[in-house]
Amino acid sequence: MGDYQVLGKSVTRVDALEKVTGKAVYCTDIKLPGMLYVKILRSPHPHAKIVSIDTRKAAQLRGVKCILTGEDVTQKRYGSVVRDSAILARGVVRAVGEPIVAVGAETIEAAEEALELIDVKYEPLPAIFDPEEAASTNPPVIIHPDLFKYEPASSFFKLGKRLDVDRPNVVMHFKIRRGDIEEGFAKSALVLENRFTTARVQHCPMELQVSVVQPEPDGTLTLWISLTMMHPARTEFSKLFDLPVTKVRAVQPYVGGSFGRSSTRSELPIAMAMALNTGKPVKHVFNREEMYYRAGNRIPFTIDIKDGVKKDGTLMARQMNIILGGGGSAEFTVGLVARNCAFGAVGTYRIPNFKLDSYGVYTNNPIATGFRGLGTPEVTFAIESHMDMLAEKLGIDPIEIRRKNILREGEPNVTGEITHSIGSEGCLDKIVHWLKLEEKPQAEGVWKKGKGFAIANKYTLAPSTASARVEVTPDEGIVLYSGAEEVGQGCDTIMAQMVAEEFGVSIDKVKSAPNDTSHTPFDSGAYSSRQTYWSGNAVKLASQDAKRQIFEKVGEIFKVSAEKLEMKDGFVCVKGLPDKKMELTDVCGSFAEGKIVGNATFVQEFAAEDPETGQIDPKLAAEGKRLNTSYAHTAKGVEVAVNTETGEVKVLRCATADDMGFPLNPKACEQQAEGGLGMGIGIGIYEEVIVKDGVIMNPNFTDYRMPTFYQMPKNEDVKVMFSPVPHKDGPYGAKGFSEGALAGMEPAIANAVYRAVDVRIKDLPITAEKVLKALKEIEGKK
Amino acid sequence: MSERIKLKVNGITEEVVVEPWWSLAYVLREVLNLTGTKVGCETGNCGTCTVLVDGKAIKSCLFLAMKARGKEIITIEGLMDKEGKIHPLQKAFIDHFAVQCGYCTPGMILAAKALLDENPNPSEEDVRKGLSGNLCRCTGYVKIVEAVLAAK
User: Fold this and answer.
1) Which residue in the set A12, A21, A207 is minimally distant from B90, CB to CB?
2) What ipTM does this complex have?
3) Quick check: B139 and A674 CB within 8 A?
4) Which end of chain A is less enclosed by CB atoms within 10 A, N or C?
5) Is the residue at A234 inside a domain?
6) Is the backbone of residue A545 left (phi > 0), alpha (psi -120 to 50) or beta?
7) What does the pLDDT look like over A610-652, one tens digit per residue?
8) Chain B residues with beta carbon closer than 8 angstroms to that of A667
């Protein structure tokens, strides 16, 4: 790694001051004169025909300005993989919480009161909630009879449609086939089969999702959105309303935590329809219950895994059948995650015979959508629990069984993609050293203790798009225009660091323009941990483009070749002649516009997989083409205490070791790593969105248990380590890893619980009830 | 029946007309335009609405505005001193990387101020207990605890 001035240093985050002083603006803080407040009447039924809607009484209420139903808005559907979502339901509702009627009123109170006065008559239809049943070839309920007529949503991901003609509720069927799976099992000394399941979880960002839409006098629409993927959203929703994209402007204030929820588009189209209909500015704010229903849940997984190993632990064959239980609409990621979760099973281990089928399925449950990790943590829960189980059955060391199967640099993985930048082993080494597995912790009264670990990877998907612009003016200095989205992960800071490094200045000399499609260039946004690599490369190239122009110009002035110039402390200098220099902002005057503009679009070619086998074309792989942008790698270690009388699980110590290629800002990396540990504790032990007959039983912070200060171990018992392996194409070797920060916690906890009390929980979360039940069963058998 | 009430916010006496069902959070954010105070749940769980009322950390989403009559309220906007210098807690949150998305931050800092005002030398356990009414999804709480201990 290079000798950098700004990069690799824990420089203060550029957004911290605004946030600690309360000056940072979030969508919810936007207020416009004459604004209407939107409240939404939602379906109480998981599957029903809408018989009639009577809004007459509500329309007469003072302050109510507009009421919209499905009949009043475009019939066109929207979506992120498949266009299956209506703005407001027409004819049929497919999940509890689906929007039926939108009211726009002068006050929130009037809007809420209006909802009470609306009378909707439904005819309930049979509903289906079990994803396995829904995924079958002959399900009792077909949720989207017109599924095969729906268009693929082209604005976000060019996945096309991967429907399964035999399964009418499947929105995506992804396959990987390599080698000969039956032969692989036949050659195995041990074949083990198990089912693992994960629960619905809510992202629980502190921010409530908000859309603000203002129709402008010149006929344009301005959107303020607390969503990510601002640019693609603008494109998709311009199309939805038949507006030229140039007539729609999207502005993104600070986002109060994404974790994947801000990939769902609700209820932005409703706000847009209301604004277009009334000609007035419109604001919709989710309440916390709506966050559970409509910001979406992490998709529940059912994973059947079958592994075949040699006596020495060498993996011979792995077969996985994965069902993703989506909701009434596929949203961003039931389609995307059904493909991408597979990479959690691809990026780490060498497996000669591999067969994977993943199915993204519709049910009449509420929306399930993107969540930090896009399926990798769930798949990892199954795999890393299984690796410990295999090791135990074989009587071999659980550390060695991982070590011997980890892919090496240059080896093909199970898609044929050539492995590059894999820090798994280094991460494993660090965790193993910290954990000291061989030292068994002593029980304390009714608390039995155990240690566990797991390794994981997290891909960043491909292809993608990112552009950036750097401008230098005498008044403003250096300003970065990048569509990279700050959702708390620190990307504004690392982008500014890159510019500062390239220009040889301190970070406070770099300003970042706020995200606004009217002046920030296209960037797909914050998902799949892509921004470090994609936005970062664009920012780096744009900076270098500006520098190239600067050196050319100053070279002419000083009559030296461009190679003889360098940037130092805000000056352009001749190398070796410290007095021959020109202040950067003075250089501006030599440019026609009085300013220097550096532009770049980062472009990289990737391969697409064969839809039948999930394999990359070997010729393309040999040329160095990949399916995915990069993989981050991680290892997690935990020590738990289990109360043998109540089943309660507590995490006493936890650690992570992460490979992010190059830690651009070490403290910022720690921030994400620690957050991942905390979220992993929550998802591993406490968190479950409980759904009964399509209704969420705990859509609030009292009954849904996300971690508080009490659930984290003491600071001295939390450790973050780095084991970076540079990526040849990542900016300065860096890769995104914020999702990898979560991966591996759940199986590490499950493995630790097993070592503590001989109880193997294969269904997340690992609640006290489940552990206690299992402990009692063990007692019963004795 | 709406009523005109006086309350002191960040040292300034404000006179506002409030409806009986308005929360203090609503008045601060929507009437006085002090949007630093956030709303995250409206059920008193998340703490993003935390402000100081007569020195005590209060969840303003559950505190009726009318009850604030005659009281001294400090919001995040009021933590800077008259010269515009930030409070040691604000500095500690910055220096110790205790801020990520920032949504919990105003409430968290004010809850921490109330804690330190009452107990200037808390242990780590005291800090966790004192801030247990404030949720954060981004940080795992690690650097928040570090920042508060550093500011004591």
Assistant:
1) A21
2) 0.98
3) yes
4) C
5) yes
6) alpha
7) 999 999 999 999 999 999 999 999 999 999 999 999 999 999 9
8) 97
